[in-house]
Amino acid sequence: MQLSAELVANAVYDAIRKCATTLRPDFEAGVRAALEREENPRARRVLDQMLENAHIARTDGVPLCQDTGTVWVCLEVGEDLAVPGNVFSLVDDAVARAYDDGILRKSVLADALLNRVNTNTNTPAFCEIKLVPGMGARLHVMLKGGGSDNASRVIMLPPGAGREGIVREVLACVREKAANACPPLLAGIGIGATFDKVAGLAKHALLRPVGSPAASPEAAAFEAELLTEINALGIGPAALGGHVTALAVHVETAPCHIAALPLAINMGCCAMRSASIDLVERAAGSTSASHSEEIAESTRSAAAPRTAASRSAKPGLSTSSQDAEPLRLTLPLAAEDLAGLTAGQEVLMSGPVYTMRDAGHARALDYLRERDELPFNLAGQTLFYAGPTPAAAGRPLGSVGPTTASRMDFATPALMDAGIVACIGKGKRAPEVIEACKRNGSIYLATVGGVAALLATRVTDSELVAWEDLGTEALRRLTLHDFPAYVAIDAQGRDLYREIEG
User: Fold this and answer.
1) Is 501 exposed, middle or buried (0-12, 13-18, 19+ CB in 10 A)?
2) Which CATH number describes the domain made up of 146-268?
3) Taking every pair of C-alpha atoms in the chain, what is the biggest distance, in angstroms?
4) pLDDT, tens digit, 9 for 90 and up, residues 221-246
5) Which fold has domain 326-501?
6) Global model pTM greater than 0.85
């Protein structure tokens, strides 16, 4: 058999369409198991939202997360199989068609430094070939969001750092970045090889079924140790506190230079999206795919009753004093509303918000410097750090969820000083933002990342206001109804994330 570019491209197209709307079933089963053992009431509700989100995305055919990611393609091919030199030549076309047909968000820029303009096709895909023994051919496709990839890192440790140094660096990375990566996490850890290869080890580790132990008993024991240490941090689902920060830790090791101890940490978020396809079986007419798909039906049948129940249940039911019934807020927020909120409080918001991300913040700052006022009557309003997907499933948006709030720290104090009263995102903020909240009586709200299909059901209208050239980053006015969030920084400067950290 000889692989063809057409076979690879068609498999990539199908994988993207499936991955974007279907939580990897082994990961969904892991979330369900985590819900059974999680004791924190707020964390349990977050996990319930994640399961409901998976049900909505799968049923309505909308993206699990608004960040439909970059496309990573790895072709594992047997050394005895013929591979044409143009095997990836049709992949970019398949990616572009999949993103158009699936109504997915396109997030790839033409050049990281020289031309930060959206390609509007989500191409190029990032492809690699890996030779393996035998005659088989397996294609892996992963959609990787910016929040989880940005939370990853490569560290070239000295050999003397040893096992303890690796544990220390992994825990430091999780403490610092987990809130941005949308936990519960699947942590891929690469140890060894060289600077350019160790990250690949970590990324490949994410392809293993959740919780499947490493082949080596020693590596498997290390995985269990790291998982215990990570979950002992108490960061929890959505970094809002709890016992389950990670579902699993997967470690892949390799040889390395005597002077080196390369370490890579690749975070997998709660919207884990990958598929593995046997191309030989596909070419023969079989639809057999990955381990994930083999357990899909059992996961789906278990998922539906819980999501149906969670939709009918009232949010916030809990015996814990810190998780009382959520407070309903009407937007725009008045000064007395802002002053009465406390960090950790759960809220349901109804009314208008404005979407604004990195590029929009830069433009708003320029406008503010030139005219000494906010553009488009934004004074007194709430900003939502979001780049939604287009309308789908009969709703104004297919999916919409929070992006990493810390990227907006460069502009938030100035915008709050100019009249922005609240912002919605995910993850921790800089001390300057906390001071701006105290100074202006403003607040920062955190909503759960990775549940964008669910959050889109709480948006009743979407209207383009300005900056259409920014695509998904354009300024939009959304109308919310019972949109769930938590007060992360209140007007007195109390910070939920720092309280959780202790």
Assistant:
1) middle
2) 3.30.1330
3) 72
4) 999 999 999 999 999 999 999 999 99
5) fumarase (3.20.130)
6) yes
